[in-house]
Design a protein that fits this description.
The chain is an alpha/beta fold and 353 residues long. It has twelve helices and eleven strands. It is 47% helix and 16% strand. Keywords: Signal, Transport.
């Protein structure tokens, strides 16, 4: 009997170790760490006040025995256009996915954020909810990652170091863009699109590499763009949607109950960011123009240019005439049926056939 007990005591730790080695579902007593790629620290408040605290306190927020080794992408030496590749290679477990920036590797992503398709938060939310399952299935199949949720930085507007009163004034100006859909639109209004990563923009504006650049008001404020520009034109080209994705390898380490807790935690986070993003956008617009109330950012003195109704019409019309056709040609080559799936989901929501 004593020998049996001794053998049992010896075998139990071995069995636990074997379970870990075989990558089985995480047990309550196991403590594991997920490696996480975050948003660039340079993007500001959402990363600093919502995303990073969530991952810093990951075990408590999820109710799971999991820690997060979180690092912002601009502190890793990894380009924000390479996130899906490094996830597929198994180098990280969770990524704060920059949707437009990774759309060259997976054009289906851009269906979340086509130019002109979501001019406000309410519409953007409808687009996201309509498209979630379609995009999740594609990412699982193509990159072995599961989508856990998505949220917007907010309307992506124009910042220029030259006077701009309407879209037609972009003729001949070099404009920083971050995806091919936006580049095509800027071309159609006479601008010269220049693809640049977010971290390159401040210096590029300062040196005259570009005359204008597009981002959200809060991100521009946090990174000091108003130091090197003079005008903001608040027409929202896109909503800069970003997502959270987990590798299927990491996801499948969790049992059904743990997966439900993980999904619920990310829903709480993303819902919170949707609300916070809208608050930040309104406040940052004021801060950039030196107006009150300005509670979250630094005050600057940009000229706040009123949006021309004709430009809003141009942007709205561009969805059917530019955004969808341009994107569909690229996406259907990489993912046959891509645009048809979009029209059957998002298209129904926003009235595009």
């Amino acid at each position: 009997m004593n020998l049996t007990r001794s053998l049992s005591r010896c075998l139990l730790p071995l069995a636990a170790a074997a379970a870990l080695l075989t990558g089985g579902p995480a047990q309550a007593q196991d403590r594991i760490t997920f490696k996480v790629i975050g948003q660039p620290a340079a993007t500001g408040m959402v990363q600093k006040n919502k995303e990073k605290p969530f991952f810093d306190d990951f075990a408590k927020r999820t109710g799971l025995p999991i820690d997060a080794d979180y690092k912002a992408v601009d502190q890793l030496g990894i380009k924000d256009t390479e996130q899906l590749r490094v996830m597929k290679a198994g180098l990280f477990d969770i990524v704060s996915l920059r949707v437009s920036q990774n759309s060259r590797d997976e054009p289906t992503l851009l269906g979340l954020d086509l130019v002109g398709a979501a001019p406000n938060y309410e519409t953007a939310r409808k687009v996201y909810e309509a498209y979630f399952d379609t995009l999740d299935q594609r990412l699982q199949k193509q990159f072995q990652v599961k989508l856990l949720g998505a949220w917007p930085f907010g309307p992506q507007i124009l910042f220029c170091k030259k006077p701009v009163a309407k879209l037609a004034d972009l003729k001949g100006l070099k404009v920083r863009v971050y995806d091919q859909n936006l580049a095509k639109f800027i071309e159609t209004v006479g601008g010269v699109p220049v693809p640049l990563s977010f971290t390159e923009v401040h210096q590029s504006l300062s040196l005259g590499v570009v005359d204008c650049a597009i981002t959200g008001p809060s991100s521009a404020n946090s990174s000091g763009w108003p130091e090197v520009t003079t005008h903001q034109y608040p027409i929202g080209f896109q909503m800069a949607v970003n997502g959270y994705a987990i590798t299927l390898k990491a996801w499948n380490r969790l049992n059904a109950d743990q997966q439900a807790k993980m999904q619920a935690a990310f829903k709480t986070l993303t819902d919170d960011i949707w609300v916070y993003s809208e608050q930040l956008t309104k406040d940052a617009m004021n801060c950039n123009a030196g107006k009150e109330p300005c509670t979250t950012g630094k005050k600057f003195n940009l000229v706040d240019v009123p949006v021309q109704p004709a430009d809003l019409t141009t942007l709205r019309d561009a969805v059917a005439t530019i955004s969808v056709p341009t994107w569909a040609e690229i996406c259907d080559k990489a993912n046959p049926g891509c645009s048809a799936a979009w029209k059957a989901t998002v298209g129904k929501v926003i009235g595009i056939k």
